[in-house]
Protein backbone atom coordinates (compact mmCIF):
# COMPACT_ATOMS: atom_id res chain seq x y z
CA UNK A 1 0.00 0.00 0.00
CA UNK A 2 1.22 3.51 -0.59
CA UNK A 3 1.49 5.19 2.77
CA UNK A 4 -0.12 8.52 2.02
CA UNK A 5 0.88 11.03 4.66
CA UNK A 6 1.89 14.63 4.92
CA UNK A 7 4.86 13.45 6.94
CA UNK A 8 6.56 11.89 3.94
CA UNK A 9 8.66 14.52 2.25
CA UNK A 10 8.32 15.00 -1.49
CA UNK A 11 11.24 13.51 -3.36
CA UNK A 12 12.13 11.09 -0.57
CA UNK A 13 13.39 8.05 -2.45
CA UNK A 14 15.66 6.17 -0.08
CA UNK A 15 13.06 5.70 2.67
CA UNK A 16 9.55 6.43 3.79
CA UNK A 17 9.55 8.10 7.21
CA UNK A 18 6.43 8.59 9.29
CA UNK A 19 6.48 10.49 12.55
CA UNK A 20 4.15 12.30 14.87
CA UNK A 21 2.01 12.17 17.96
CA UNK A 22 -0.84 9.74 17.46
CA UNK A 23 -3.49 10.78 19.95
CA UNK A 24 -6.40 13.01 19.02
CA UNK A 25 -5.72 16.68 19.62
CA UNK A 26 -8.66 17.43 21.87
CA UNK A 27 -7.98 14.43 24.09
CA UNK A 28 -4.28 14.90 24.76
CA UNK A 29 -3.25 15.39 28.33
CA UNK A 30 -1.11 14.12 31.14
CA UNK A 31 -3.62 11.86 32.85
CA UNK A 32 -5.90 9.17 31.43
CA UNK A 33 -9.38 8.17 32.50
CA UNK A 34 -12.59 10.10 33.06
CA UNK A 35 -14.78 8.69 35.80
CA UNK A 36 -17.72 10.94 34.98
CA UNK A 37 -18.37 9.75 31.41
CA UNK A 38 -20.73 7.06 30.16
CA UNK A 39 -19.54 3.54 29.39
CA UNK A 40 -19.64 2.22 25.82
CA UNK A 41 -20.97 -1.25 25.14
CA UNK A 42 -19.35 -2.91 22.12
CA UNK A 43 -21.34 -5.79 20.72
CA UNK A 44 -20.86 -8.77 18.42
CA UNK A 45 -23.40 -11.30 17.08
CA UNK A 46 -21.26 -14.41 17.60
CA UNK A 47 -22.91 -16.09 20.57
CA UNK A 48 -21.45 -16.69 24.01
CA UNK A 49 -17.68 -17.06 24.29
CA UNK A 50 -17.21 -19.56 27.07
CA UNK A 51 -13.46 -19.67 27.68
CA UNK A 52 -11.23 -16.78 28.72
CA UNK A 53 -8.03 -16.24 26.76
CA UNK A 54 -6.34 -12.85 26.58
CA UNK A 55 -3.45 -13.88 24.34
CA UNK A 56 -3.29 -11.34 21.46
CA UNK A 57 -1.53 -13.79 19.14
CA UNK A 58 -4.31 -16.39 19.16
CA UNK A 59 -7.04 -15.83 16.59
CA UNK A 60 -9.51 -17.94 18.56
CA UNK A 61 -8.85 -16.29 21.93
CA UNK A 62 -11.67 -14.41 23.63
CA UNK A 63 -9.57 -11.25 23.32
CA UNK A 64 -9.54 -11.72 19.54
CA UNK A 65 -13.13 -12.89 19.14
CA UNK A 66 -14.65 -10.15 21.30
CA UNK A 67 -12.05 -7.70 20.00
CA UNK A 68 -11.02 -6.29 23.37
CA UNK A 69 -7.42 -7.43 22.91
CA UNK A 70 -6.87 -4.52 20.52
CA UNK A 71 -7.41 -1.92 23.26
CA UNK A 72 -4.98 -3.68 25.60
CA UNK A 73 -2.09 -4.53 23.28
CA UNK A 74 -0.89 -1.97 20.73
CA UNK A 75 1.28 -2.01 17.63
CA UNK A 76 4.04 0.08 16.06
CA UNK A 77 1.67 1.98 13.77
CA UNK A 78 -1.92 2.02 12.51
CA UNK A 79 -2.58 1.53 8.81
CA UNK A 80 -5.93 2.97 7.75
CA UNK A 81 -7.70 0.41 5.52
CA UNK A 82 -9.96 3.11 4.07
CA UNK A 83 -9.85 6.84 3.29
CA UNK A 84 -6.31 7.84 2.35
CA UNK A 85 -4.84 4.44 3.34
CA UNK A 86 -2.44 6.44 5.52
CA UNK A 87 -0.23 5.26 8.34
CA UNK A 88 -0.18 6.80 11.82
CA UNK A 89 2.83 6.05 14.06
CA UNK A 90 1.65 4.61 17.36
CA UNK A 91 3.99 2.80 19.76
CA UNK A 92 6.75 3.89 17.41
CA UNK A 93 7.34 7.61 17.06
CA UNK A 94 8.76 6.95 13.60
CA UNK A 95 8.67 4.01 11.20
CA UNK A 96 11.02 4.00 8.24
CA UNK A 97 11.12 1.53 5.35
CA UNK A 98 14.11 1.13 3.07
CA UNK A 99 13.71 1.32 -0.72
CA UNK A 100 12.68 -2.26 -1.36
CA UNK A 101 10.76 -2.69 1.90
CA UNK A 102 13.04 -5.41 3.25
CA UNK A 103 13.99 -3.38 6.32
CA UNK A 104 11.91 -1.48 8.87
CA UNK A 105 13.39 0.93 11.39
CA UNK A 106 11.18 1.88 14.33
CA UNK A 107 11.90 4.43 17.03
CA UNK A 108 10.23 3.48 20.31
CA UNK A 109 7.89 6.16 21.63
CA UNK A 110 9.24 7.89 24.74
CA UNK A 111 7.22 8.24 27.92
CA UNK A 112 5.17 5.06 27.49
CA UNK A 113 4.60 2.68 30.38
CA UNK A 114 3.01 -0.74 30.55
CA UNK A 115 -0.22 -0.88 32.50
CA UNK A 116 1.66 -2.41 35.47
CA UNK A 117 3.87 0.68 35.65
CA UNK A 118 7.01 -0.75 34.02
CA UNK A 119 8.67 1.35 31.31
CA UNK A 120 8.11 0.44 27.67
CA UNK A 121 11.38 0.33 25.69
CA UNK A 122 12.79 -0.66 22.33
CA UNK A 123 13.76 -3.98 23.89
CA UNK A 124 10.06 -4.84 24.21
CA UNK A 125 9.62 -4.30 20.47
CA UNK A 126 12.65 -6.44 19.68
CA UNK A 127 11.53 -9.16 22.09
CA UNK A 128 8.07 -9.31 20.53
CA UNK A 129 9.44 -9.85 17.02
CA UNK A 130 12.23 -12.14 18.24
CA UNK A 131 9.61 -14.55 19.57
CA UNK A 132 8.83 -15.23 15.91
CA UNK A 133 12.43 -15.12 14.69
CA UNK A 134 13.50 -17.61 17.37
CA UNK A 135 10.66 -19.96 16.54
CA UNK A 136 9.00 -19.63 19.92
CA UNK A 137 5.91 -17.97 18.41
CA UNK A 138 4.35 -19.29 15.20
CA UNK A 139 4.75 -16.95 12.21
CA UNK A 140 1.02 -16.75 11.51
CA UNK A 141 1.44 -13.32 9.88
CA UNK A 142 4.07 -14.57 7.42
CA UNK A 143 6.54 -11.95 8.64
CA UNK A 144 9.47 -13.94 7.21
CA UNK A 145 11.95 -12.30 9.58
CA UNK A 146 15.70 -12.27 8.95
CA UNK A 147 17.09 -10.36 11.93
CA UNK A 148 16.15 -7.95 14.71
CA UNK A 149 18.58 -5.54 16.37
CA UNK A 150 18.39 -2.70 18.92
CA UNK A 151 20.42 0.48 19.09
CA UNK A 152 19.27 2.73 21.93
CA UNK A 153 15.61 3.56 21.32
CA UNK A 154 15.69 2.29 17.72
CA UNK A 155 14.82 -1.19 16.50
CA UNK A 156 15.86 -2.42 13.05
CA UNK A 157 13.92 -5.34 11.62
CA UNK A 158 15.16 -7.10 8.49
CA UNK A 159 13.04 -9.41 6.37
CA UNK A 160 13.93 -12.13 3.88
CA UNK A 161 11.48 -10.67 1.35
CA UNK A 162 9.88 -7.34 0.51
CA UNK A 163 6.99 -6.32 2.76
CA UNK A 164 5.59 -3.65 0.43
CA UNK A 165 2.32 -5.54 0.04
CA UNK A 166 2.30 -6.66 3.69
CA UNK A 167 3.08 -3.43 5.54
CA UNK A 168 -0.09 -3.59 7.63
CA UNK A 169 0.74 -7.10 8.82
CA UNK A 170 4.12 -5.94 10.05
CA UNK A 171 3.01 -2.65 11.55
CA UNK A 172 -0.06 -4.17 13.24
CA UNK A 173 1.96 -6.94 14.94
CA UNK A 174 1.09 -6.51 18.61
CA UNK A 175 3.86 -5.63 21.04
CA UNK A 176 4.02 -7.39 24.42
CA UNK A 177 6.11 -6.75 27.58
CA UNK A 178 9.33 -8.72 27.78
CA UNK A 179 9.28 -8.71 31.58
CA UNK A 180 6.12 -10.85 31.52
CA UNK A 181 6.34 -12.80 28.27
CA UNK A 182 9.91 -13.99 28.81
CA UNK A 183 8.46 -16.37 31.40
CA UNK A 184 5.68 -17.71 29.15
CA UNK A 185 6.71 -21.19 28.08
CA UNK A 186 4.50 -21.44 24.98
CA UNK A 187 3.01 -18.19 23.62
CA UNK A 188 1.13 -20.25 21.01
CA UNK A 189 -1.13 -21.80 23.65
CA UNK A 190 -0.91 -19.80 26.89
CA UNK A 191 -4.31 -18.17 27.60
CA UNK A 192 -2.67 -15.30 29.50
CA UNK A 193 -5.18 -15.48 32.33
CA UNK A 194 -2.75 -15.52 35.23
CA UNK A 195 -2.67 -12.73 37.78
CA UNK A 196 -1.12 -9.62 36.26
CA UNK A 197 -0.44 -11.20 32.86
CA UNK A 198 -2.83 -9.19 30.64
CA UNK A 199 -0.52 -6.18 30.63
CA UNK A 200 -0.34 -3.85 27.65
CA UNK A 201 0.34 -0.24 26.68
CA UNK A 202 -3.20 0.29 25.42
CA UNK A 203 -5.86 2.77 26.49
CA UNK A 204 -7.80 0.20 28.54
CA UNK A 205 -7.06 -2.50 31.07
CA UNK A 206 -8.98 -5.68 31.80
CA UNK A 207 -11.31 -5.27 34.78
CA UNK A 208 -13.71 -8.22 34.74
CA UNK A 209 -14.23 -11.29 32.55
CA UNK A 210 -17.33 -13.48 32.39
CA UNK A 211 -19.11 -15.51 29.76
CA UNK A 212 -21.79 -12.79 29.63
CA UNK A 213 -19.54 -9.78 29.17
CA UNK A 214 -16.02 -8.44 29.49
CA UNK A 215 -15.36 -5.09 31.17
CA UNK A 216 -12.32 -2.87 30.66
CA UNK A 217 -11.56 0.42 32.37
CA UNK A 218 -9.54 3.38 31.12
CA UNK A 219 -5.80 3.13 31.69
CA UNK A 220 -5.10 6.11 34.02
CA UNK A 221 -1.51 6.37 32.78
CA UNK A 222 -2.18 6.00 29.07
CA UNK A 223 0.53 7.66 27.01
CA UNK A 224 -2.04 8.91 24.50
CA UNK A 225 -3.69 11.26 26.94
CA UNK A 226 -6.99 11.58 28.73
CA UNK A 227 -9.75 9.25 27.57
CA UNK A 228 -13.31 10.48 27.41
CA UNK A 229 -14.80 6.98 27.76
CA UNK A 230 -14.13 5.56 31.25
CA UNK A 231 -15.32 2.01 30.63
CA UNK A 232 -15.86 -0.45 27.79
CA UNK A 233 -18.26 -3.39 28.03
CA UNK A 234 -17.87 -6.14 25.44
CA UNK A 235 -20.96 -8.29 24.88
CA UNK A 236 -21.70 -11.00 22.31
CA UNK A 237 -25.31 -11.66 21.27
CA UNK A 238 -26.73 -14.81 19.73
CA UNK A 239 -27.28 -13.44 16.23
CA UNK A 240 -27.74 -10.28 14.17
CA UNK A 241 -31.40 -9.95 15.16
CA UNK A 242 -30.56 -9.88 18.87
CA UNK A 243 -27.68 -7.49 18.20
CA UNK A 244 -29.96 -5.14 16.25
CA UNK A 245 -32.49 -5.13 19.08
CA UNK A 246 -29.73 -4.24 21.54
CA UNK A 247 -28.48 -1.39 19.33
CA UNK A 248 -31.98 0.04 18.89
CA UNK A 249 -32.81 -0.15 22.62
CA UNK A 250 -29.51 1.46 23.60
CA UNK A 251 -28.35 -1.67 25.40
CA UNK A 252 -25.42 -1.74 22.96
CA UNK A 253 -23.62 1.30 21.56
CA UNK A 254 -21.15 0.11 18.96
CA UNK A 255 -21.02 -2.87 16.63
CA UNK A 256 -19.81 -4.27 13.33
CA UNK A 257 -22.55 -6.19 11.56
CA UNK A 258 -24.50 -6.44 8.32
CA UNK A 259 -28.05 -5.48 9.35
CA UNK A 260 -30.81 -6.11 6.79
CA UNK A 261 -33.15 -3.16 6.18
CA UNK A 262 -30.86 -1.06 8.35
CA UNK A 263 -32.75 2.17 7.66
CA UNK A 264 -36.04 0.90 9.06
CA UNK A 265 -34.62 -1.51 11.63
CA UNK A 266 -31.95 0.73 13.17
CA UNK A 267 -31.36 4.21 11.76
CA UNK A 268 -34.93 5.43 11.87
CA UNK A 269 -35.29 4.44 15.52
CA UNK A 270 -33.14 7.38 16.68
CA UNK A 271 -31.56 10.22 14.73
CA UNK A 272 -28.39 9.68 16.78
CA UNK A 273 -27.98 6.13 15.52
CA UNK A 274 -25.26 6.13 12.88
CA UNK A 275 -24.00 3.70 10.25
CA UNK A 276 -20.68 4.13 8.45
CA UNK A 277 -19.72 2.12 5.38
CA UNK A 278 -15.98 2.35 4.76
CA UNK A 279 -14.84 1.02 1.38
CA UNK A 280 -11.51 -0.79 1.30
CA UNK A 281 -9.18 -1.99 -1.44
CA UNK A 282 -10.89 -5.38 -1.42
CA UNK A 283 -14.04 -6.22 -3.36
CA UNK A 284 -16.83 -8.74 -3.69
CA UNK A 285 -15.81 -10.34 -6.99
CA UNK A 286 -17.27 -12.69 -9.56
CA UNK A 287 -14.64 -15.36 -10.20
CA UNK A 288 -15.06 -17.43 -13.36
CA UNK A 289 -13.46 -20.78 -14.17
CA UNK A 290 -11.26 -19.77 -17.08
CA UNK A 291 -10.35 -23.37 -17.90
CA UNK A 292 -13.75 -24.50 -19.16
CA UNK A 293 -16.66 -23.25 -21.26
CA UNK A 294 -18.12 -20.72 -21.33
CA UNK A 295 -15.50 -18.68 -19.49
CA UNK A 296 -12.48 -19.80 -21.47
CA UNK A 297 -13.52 -17.18 -24.05
CA UNK A 298 -12.47 -13.61 -23.16
CA UNK A 299 -15.25 -12.24 -25.39
CA UNK A 300 -17.88 -13.84 -23.19
CA UNK A 301 -16.23 -12.41 -20.08
CA UNK A 302 -16.09 -8.94 -21.65
CA UNK A 303 -19.76 -9.16 -22.55
CA UNK A 304 -20.64 -10.01 -18.95
CA UNK A 305 -18.61 -7.02 -17.76
CA UNK A 306 -20.76 -4.76 -19.99
CA UNK A 307 -23.98 -6.32 -18.68
CA UNK A 308 -23.69 -6.86 -14.93
CA UNK A 309 -25.25 -4.04 -12.91
CA UNK A 310 -22.82 -3.19 -10.11
CA UNK A 311 -25.16 -0.52 -8.75
CA UNK A 312 -27.86 -3.16 -8.27
CA UNK A 313 -25.32 -5.24 -6.36
CA UNK A 314 -24.75 -2.31 -4.00
CA UNK A 315 -28.35 -1.14 -3.69
CA UNK A 316 -30.14 -4.49 -3.53
CA UNK A 317 -27.72 -7.26 -2.57
CA UNK A 318 -25.67 -5.14 -0.19
CA UNK A 319 -28.51 -2.77 0.80
CA UNK A 320 -26.21 0.21 0.29
CA UNK A 321 -23.34 -1.23 2.32
CA UNK A 322 -20.74 -1.01 -0.44
CA UNK A 323 -19.90 1.11 -3.48
CA UNK A 324 -19.86 -0.10 -7.10
CA UNK A 325 -16.65 -0.77 -9.00
CA UNK A 326 -17.01 0.23 -12.64
CA UNK A 327 -13.47 0.98 -13.83
CA UNK A 328 -12.16 -1.48 -16.41
CA UNK A 329 -9.03 -2.02 -14.30
CA UNK A 330 -11.15 -3.44 -11.49
CA UNK A 331 -9.82 -0.83 -9.05
CA UNK A 332 -12.25 0.98 -6.78
CA UNK A 333 -12.31 4.52 -5.42
CA UNK A 334 -9.74 4.07 -2.65
CA UNK A 335 -7.21 2.98 -5.29
CA UNK A 336 -8.13 5.39 -8.08
CA UNK A 337 -4.76 7.10 -7.63
CA UNK A 338 -3.09 3.95 -8.96
CA UNK A 339 -5.14 3.82 -12.17
CA UNK A 340 -2.92 4.66 -15.15
CA UNK A 341 -3.84 7.65 -17.33
CA UNK A 342 -5.04 5.40 -20.15
CA UNK A 343 -7.82 4.03 -17.96
CA UNK A 344 -8.74 7.06 -15.86
CA UNK A 345 -12.49 7.43 -16.31
CA UNK A 346 -12.70 4.39 -18.60
CA UNK A 347 -15.61 2.62 -16.97
CA UNK A 348 -18.01 -0.15 -17.70
CA UNK A 349 -21.72 0.56 -17.67
CA UNK A 350 -24.82 -1.51 -18.24
CA UNK A 351 -24.64 -1.42 -22.04
CA UNK A 352 -26.42 -4.40 -23.54
CA UNK A 353 -25.86 -3.23 -27.12
CA UNK A 354 -22.13 -3.05 -26.45
CA UNK A 355 -22.16 -6.51 -24.92
CA UNK A 356 -24.06 -7.98 -27.85
CA UNK A 357 -21.66 -6.36 -30.29
CA UNK A 358 -18.69 -7.98 -28.53
CA UNK A 359 -20.42 -11.36 -28.73
CA UNK A 360 -21.43 -11.00 -32.37
CA UNK A 361 -17.86 -10.09 -33.33
CA UNK A 362 -16.71 -13.29 -31.61
CA UNK A 363 -19.17 -15.49 -33.54
CA UNK A 364 -22.04 -15.79 -31.07
CA UNK A 365 -25.64 -15.83 -32.28
CA UNK A 366 -29.12 -16.00 -30.78
CA UNK A 367 -31.78 -18.62 -31.27
CA UNK A 368 -35.20 -18.16 -29.68
CA UNK A 369 -33.67 -15.41 -27.56
CA UNK A 370 -31.02 -17.81 -26.22
CA UNK A 371 -27.31 -17.09 -26.65
CA UNK A 372 -25.56 -19.66 -28.83
CA UNK A 373 -21.76 -19.95 -28.77
CA UNK A 374 -19.57 -20.41 -31.90
CA UNK A 375 -19.77 -24.22 -31.39
CA UNK A 376 -23.56 -24.10 -31.70
CA UNK A 377 -24.23 -24.72 -28.01
CA UNK A 378 -26.52 -22.68 -25.78
CA UNK A 379 -24.57 -20.65 -23.23
CA UNK A 380 -25.38 -21.44 -19.62
CA UNK A 381 -23.50 -21.73 -16.36
CA UNK A 382 -24.00 -22.10 -12.63
CA UNK A 383 -22.95 -19.59 -10.00
CA UNK A 384 -22.18 -20.92 -6.53
CA UNK A 385 -22.37 -19.19 -3.13
CA UNK A 386 -22.90 -20.94 0.23
CA UNK A 387 -26.47 -21.05 1.46
CA UNK A 388 -27.15 -18.40 4.09
CA UNK A 389 -24.79 -15.79 2.69
CA UNK A 390 -27.80 -13.56 2.18
CA UNK A 391 -26.21 -10.64 0.33
CA UNK A 392 -24.39 -12.82 -2.20
CA UNK A 393 -27.37 -15.17 -2.45
CA UNK A 394 -29.39 -12.12 -3.49
CA UNK A 395 -26.69 -11.21 -6.02
CA UNK A 396 -26.95 -14.70 -7.51
CA UNK A 397 -30.62 -14.06 -8.25
CA UNK A 398 -29.85 -10.63 -9.68
CA UNK A 399 -27.19 -12.03 -12.02
CA UNK A 400 -29.51 -14.79 -13.19
CA UNK A 401 -32.19 -12.26 -14.04
CA UNK A 402 -29.85 -9.71 -15.63
CA UNK A 403 -28.02 -12.15 -17.88
CA UNK A 404 -31.14 -14.00 -18.98
CA UNK A 405 -33.03 -10.83 -19.90
CA UNK A 406 -30.11 -9.02 -21.52
CA UNK A 407 -28.16 -11.77 -23.25
CA UNK A 408 -30.24 -14.93 -23.13
CA UNK A 409 -27.84 -16.77 -20.82
CA UNK A 410 -29.30 -19.31 -18.42
CA UNK A 411 -27.69 -18.90 -15.00
CA UNK A 412 -28.30 -21.68 -12.52
CA UNK A 413 -28.20 -20.67 -8.85
CA UNK A 414 -26.21 -23.11 -6.69
CA UNK A 415 -26.23 -22.73 -2.89
CA UNK A 416 -24.27 -25.61 -1.35
CA UNK A 417 -23.05 -25.87 2.23
CA UNK A 418 -19.68 -24.34 3.05
CA UNK A 419 -17.80 -27.62 2.70
CA UNK A 420 -19.01 -28.32 -0.82
CA UNK A 421 -18.40 -24.75 -1.93
CA UNK A 422 -14.94 -24.69 -0.39
CA UNK A 423 -13.89 -27.93 -2.08
CA UNK A 424 -15.14 -26.75 -5.49
CA UNK A 425 -13.35 -23.38 -5.31
CA UNK A 426 -10.08 -25.06 -4.34
CA UNK A 427 -10.27 -27.88 -6.86
CA UNK A 428 -11.57 -25.79 -9.75
CA UNK A 429 -14.77 -27.81 -10.22
CA UNK A 430 -17.05 -24.75 -10.17
CA UNK A 431 -18.18 -22.57 -13.07
CA UNK A 432 -18.57 -19.24 -11.27
CA UNK A 433 -18.43 -18.11 -7.65
CA UNK A 434 -18.60 -14.83 -5.75
CA UNK A 435 -15.63 -14.39 -3.45
CA UNK A 436 -13.55 -11.79 -1.67
CA UNK A 437 -10.03 -10.59 -2.55
CA UNK A 438 -6.73 -10.59 -0.71
CA UNK A 439 -6.66 -6.99 0.55
CA UNK A 440 -3.11 -5.62 0.54
CA UNK A 441 -4.18 -1.98 0.61
CA UNK A 442 -2.99 -1.44 -2.96
CA UNK A 443 -3.61 -2.73 -6.49
CA UNK A 444 -1.54 -5.84 -5.88
CA UNK A 445 -4.38 -7.39 -3.86
CA UNK A 446 -6.80 -7.48 -6.79
CA UNK A 447 -4.27 -8.67 -9.33
CA UNK A 448 -2.59 -11.35 -7.23
CA UNK A 449 -6.02 -12.66 -6.20
CA UNK A 450 -7.20 -13.01 -9.80
CA UNK A 451 -4.07 -13.65 -11.91
CA UNK A 452 -1.26 -15.05 -9.75
CA UNK A 453 -0.38 -18.75 -10.18
CA UNK A 454 1.43 -18.76 -6.83
CA UNK A 455 -1.93 -19.46 -5.18
CA UNK A 456 -2.23 -22.84 -6.91
CA UNK A 457 -0.42 -25.46 -4.82
CA UNK A 458 -0.76 -29.20 -5.41
CA UNK A 459 -3.70 -28.50 -7.70
CA UNK A 460 -5.65 -26.54 -5.08
CA UNK A 461 -6.31 -22.81 -5.23
CA UNK A 462 -6.29 -20.39 -2.29
CA UNK A 463 -6.97 -17.48 -4.71
CA UNK A 464 -6.81 -17.12 -8.52
CA UNK A 465 -9.67 -19.60 -8.60
CA UNK A 466 -10.01 -19.18 -12.37
CA UNK A 467 -6.40 -20.36 -12.72
CA UNK A 468 -5.22 -17.49 -14.91
CA UNK A 469 -1.60 -17.95 -15.98
CA UNK A 470 0.48 -15.57 -18.10
CA UNK A 471 4.28 -15.36 -17.59
CA UNK A 472 4.30 -11.60 -18.33
CA UNK A 473 1.69 -11.03 -15.63
CA UNK A 474 3.50 -13.25 -13.14
CA UNK A 475 6.69 -11.27 -13.73
CA UNK A 476 4.81 -8.00 -13.29
CA UNK A 477 3.27 -9.20 -10.04
CA UNK A 478 6.69 -10.13 -8.67
CA UNK A 479 8.10 -6.75 -9.72
CA UNK A 480 5.19 -4.85 -8.17
CA UNK A 481 5.67 -6.67 -4.87
CA UNK A 482 9.47 -6.46 -4.72
CA UNK A 483 10.54 -3.36 -6.67
CA UNK A 484 13.08 -0.98 -5.18
CA UNK A 485 11.76 1.98 -7.18
CA UNK A 486 8.34 3.49 -7.72
CA UNK A 487 9.05 3.70 -11.47
CA UNK A 488 9.54 -0.07 -11.69
CA UNK A 489 6.43 -0.67 -9.62
CA UNK A 490 4.39 1.70 -11.80
CA UNK A 491 5.58 -0.05 -14.97
CA UNK A 492 4.55 -3.40 -13.52
CA UNK A 493 1.18 -1.96 -12.52
CA UNK A 494 0.61 -0.85 -16.09
CA UNK A 495 1.07 -4.43 -17.32
CA UNK A 496 -1.36 -5.70 -14.70
CA UNK A 497 -4.03 -3.11 -15.47
CA UNK A 498 -3.83 -3.60 -19.24
CA UNK A 499 -4.09 -7.36 -18.91
CA UNK A 500 -7.01 -7.15 -16.51
CA UNK A 501 -8.88 -4.71 -18.73
CA UNK A 502 -8.30 -6.77 -21.87
CA UNK A 503 -8.67 -10.30 -20.50
CA UNK A 504 -11.30 -9.74 -17.75
CA UNK A 505 -10.11 -12.66 -15.59
CA UNK A 506 -12.66 -11.69 -12.92
CA UNK A 507 -15.33 -9.03 -12.40
CA UNK A 508 -15.23 -6.96 -9.18
CA UNK A 509 -18.78 -5.99 -8.22
CA UNK A 510 -18.46 -3.66 -5.27
CA UNK A 511 -15.90 -2.57 -2.70
CA UNK A 512 -15.59 -4.78 0.34
CA UNK A 513 -16.64 -2.47 3.17
CA UNK A 514 -15.83 -2.27 6.83
CA UNK A 515 -19.08 -1.56 8.65
CA UNK A 516 -19.75 0.23 11.91
CA UNK A 517 -22.94 0.99 13.81
CA UNK A 518 -22.69 3.49 16.67
CA UNK A 519 -24.63 6.31 18.32
CA UNK A 520 -23.73 9.89 19.17
CA UNK A 521 -25.84 10.15 22.32
CA UNK A 522 -22.85 10.37 24.65
CA UNK A 523 -19.81 10.86 22.41
CA UNK A 524 -18.85 12.62 19.19
CA UNK A 525 -15.67 12.53 17.11
CA UNK A 526 -16.43 9.29 15.31
CA UNK A 527 -15.00 8.67 11.83
CA UNK A 528 -17.30 9.72 9.02
CA UNK A 529 -17.51 9.89 5.23
CA UNK A 530 -16.06 13.41 5.46
CA UNK A 531 -13.33 12.38 7.90
CA UNK A 532 -12.46 8.71 7.30
CA UNK A 533 -9.47 8.67 9.67
CA UNK A 534 -10.43 5.06 10.48
CA UNK A 535 -13.26 2.69 9.75
CA UNK A 536 -15.97 2.53 12.42
CA UNK A 537 -15.47 -1.24 12.77
CA UNK A 538 -14.57 -1.82 16.46
CA UNK A 539 -12.79 -5.09 15.63
CA UNK A 540 -10.07 -3.27 13.65
CA UNK A 541 -6.76 -2.00 15.08
CA UNK A 542 -7.93 1.59 14.47
CA UNK A 543 -10.28 1.34 17.46
CA UNK A 544 -7.53 2.80 19.65
CA UNK A 545 -7.35 5.90 17.47
CA UNK A 546 -11.12 6.32 17.61
CA UNK A 547 -11.11 6.07 21.39
CA UNK A 548 -8.55 8.88 21.60
CA UNK A 549 -10.66 11.05 19.26
CA UNK A 550 -14.01 10.69 21.06
CA UNK A 551 -15.18 13.60 23.18
CA UNK A 552 -18.34 14.01 25.28
CA UNK A 553 -21.43 15.10 23.37
CA UNK A 554 -22.78 18.47 24.39
UniProtKB/TrEMBL annotation:
A UniProt-annotated Pfam family: SBP_bac_5
Domain of life: Bacteria
Gene Ontology MF term list: peptide transmembrane transporter activity
Record keyword RNA-binding present: no
Domain Solute-binding protein family: 88-449
GO cellular component, one term: periplasmic space
Keywords: Signal
UniProt keyword Nucleus, yes or no: no
Leader sequence residues: 1-22
SUPFAM superfamilies given in the database record: Periplasmic binding protein-like II
GO BP annotations, alphabetical order: peptide transport
PANTHER family with a match to the protein in the record: ABC-TYPE DIPEPTIDE_OLIGOPEPTIDE TRANSPORT SYSTEM, PERIPLASMIC COMPONENT (PTHR30290:SF82), PERIPLASMIC BINDING COMPONENT OF ABC TRANSPORTER (PTHR30290)
Name of the protein in its database record: Peptide/nickel transport system substrate-binding protein
